[in-house]
Specification:
By secondary structure, the protein is an all-alpha fold. The protein is 70% helix and 0% strand. It has one domain. The mean pLDDT is 94.
Length: 163
């Protein structure tokens, strides 16, 4: 443990990195999205869509704390290894959608696209202080991804392998 780091800092780091996914070799945000897909599928299958909402709420609340604390002790506004925001954003993308391979794959791609692109107001949300700024833009990117996926499911389900 580095000097000055408390056990709470170590827990925050573990959670903020998506249980280590943030240490992925290239594009940690992409690696951080994978636990979001896994959590979304597991929660939806075990507890239904409202269980996934409850899981997302828990990840978001924990993520606000963990991202804020990790950024503070690393001395960076939005450290690349903090990926709990990607976990939460990916979960938003997949809410209330069929948990089928085509939907999951397109949802993964859409979330990553919107997370990198950050259309308005997502980019502005990064300016929020601390953990809120780290988390909010990814939650917005997840919402954009979800809306596009909902439209595809409604109007072009064959593109997602649903017909």
């Amino acid at each position: 443990m580095a000097p000055g780091r408390t056990p709470a800092d170590r827990v925050a780091l573990l959670l903020a990195t998506g249980l280590g996914a943030g240490y992925g070799p290239i594009a940690p945000g992409t690696w951080g999205s994978i636990p979001g897909v896994i959590a979304s599928v597991a929660l939806t299958r075990l507890l239904g869509p409202w269980g996934a909402v409850a899981g997302l709420a828990a990840v978001t609340i924990v993520g606000l704390w963990a991202a804020d604390r990790t950024a503070a002790f690393l001395g960076a506004k939005d450290p690349g290894l903090v990926v709990i925001d990607e976990v939460a954003g990916q979960m938003v993308t997949l809410l209330f959608l069929p948990q089928r391979l085509g939907v999951l794959a397109v949802g993964f791609f859409l979330f990553r696209l919107f997370d990198v692109w950050k259309p308005w107001p997502a980019r502005r949300l990064e300016d929020l202080p601390g953990g809120a700024g780290i988390m909010a833009d990814d939650l917005a990117a997840g919402l954009y991804g979800n809306l596009v996926l909902q439209a595809l499911v409604a109007w072009r389900p064959g593109l997602l392998g649903l017909t």
